[in-house]
Design a protein that fits this description.
Strand content of chain A: under 5%
Structural class of chain A: mainly alpha
Oligomer: homodimer
Distance between the termini of chain A: 60 Å
Shape of chain A: flat
Helix content of chain A: 55-70%
Largest sheet of chain A: none
Number of domains of chain A: 3
DNA sequence: ACCTGAACACCGTTCAAGT
DNA sequence: ACCTGAACACCGTTCAAGT
């Protein structure tokens, strides 16, 4: 039968987190799902923080950083952000996991960070600027990947439609004289767009900022 | 004596969160600090989520959104992001609070969001683009405001120096062949920079992206 | 209106013990 | 090496009751 391994634990934890939210990922609940005592998990992970780090690492491992090639840094930067967004997008709880974790303790995240640093460096920025830019790039990818309600798996389309409806009503019932733009754009705001739009326009937005500053020096 | 009011509760909660981290903000701990029974808080806030919303609202209330004036949207956009960053910077737990909260339930946050939407609209973006851009702008401001260790109040400079030292060692002891850039730049990476650098360069980065895309249409 | 007391169902985690 | 059992110190929250 499925042996209790660190990997199996992490994967089950991600399933729960994706389907029911990260709050549902509890040592006790997770153990019950795995048919095991809560304490059994402590043999594989020192504590819950380490489990979360394991989850974060597993998330990003799906995105293998391909090291140096000889294309211009703009292309490689765009590819990095696009790839990261695409991978994170497959897990609804990705943003939550990465927020709760000490990112410096996640090996696969460090690999991406290292790559971003290198790219910024070859773009000609100062060391301090590279630090800020690399952090900013990863953070932006995470927030862009944090999809609106629609893409969540594990929900029927009726459930999703209902969630969207409630959210839209919430915005539309706001005082229109205080938040005119929000009320007016409530529909599109809440509707979310296709993942493609997010990927291309969102990534454009982030990458363009870096390119603009690079061109300015 | 200081009466128990929603405002007093929120302010005490923010003090605890800033000084000891948001995890330390617990209904029971907060009540104890206020010299009151845990249940007393439930009269003023329906549950802990509402308390967090109150905290988030209090954070951003310090930043009054000044509505329409006639300057070009670029200037107003930059001012918006700068102002938001500056206000959030005063509270170490700001990012954490805003992450945990349903931002659509925070009135003062909605006001900023509404303003950002309007600015994006006058910049000539489509409705969908405005939605993405406004979310992105606020999210970026939050992440830029999330200062490196240095600015934290409530710590002596020795304590801060120690924290930085540990963090730097953590990076430097990484395998240099796997994360060459991280190891090399560990110093500046962890050192953090002056708030001014963050404010100007960070805000530049974000705003430049929007400007570049606006110019492209 | 505003607060307390006692209770409930949950947490993460430790520690000794089993195989 | 890998897992269990019992216990500890915490949570958020409800509900009835006090003033």
């Amino acid at each position: 039968m499925g042996k209790l391994t660190a990997r199996a634990i992490v994967e089950r934890a991600l399933e729960i987190g994706d389907a029911e939210g990260l709050d549902a990922v509890t040592i006790r609940r997770l153990a019950a799902d795995l048919g095991v005592t809560p304490m059994a998990l402590y043999w594989h992970f020192k504590n819950k923080d380490q489990l979360l780090i394991g989850m974060a690492d597993h998330l990003i491992l799906g995105f293998g950083v391909k090291g140096g090639d000889d294309r211009p840094w703009r292309d490689r930067l765009r590819e990095l952000v696009e790839g990261l967004v695409r991978v994170l997008r497959t897990h609804p709880c990705a943003k939550n996991v990465l927020e709760q974790v000490d990112q410096g303790a996640v090996p696969s995240f460090l690999a991406v960070w290292n790559e971003a640093l290198g790219l910024a460096r070859t773009a000609g920025f100062t060391v301090e600027e590279c630090c800020l830019i690399s952090k900013y790039l990863l953070q932006s990818a995470i927030s862009i990947a944090d999809a609106p309600v629609h893409f969540r798996p594990g929900h029927t389309s009726e459930e999703i439609a209902e969630i969207v409806r409630v959210k839209r009503l919430g915005l539309q019932s706001l005082p229109a004289e205080k938040y005119p733009n929000l009320v007016e754009m409530a529909g599109p705001m809440v509707a979310g767009m296709t993942a493609d739009f997010y990927d291309s326009f969102g990534v454009d937005l982030v990458v363009s900022g870096v390119e603009a500053l690079a061109a300015r020096r």
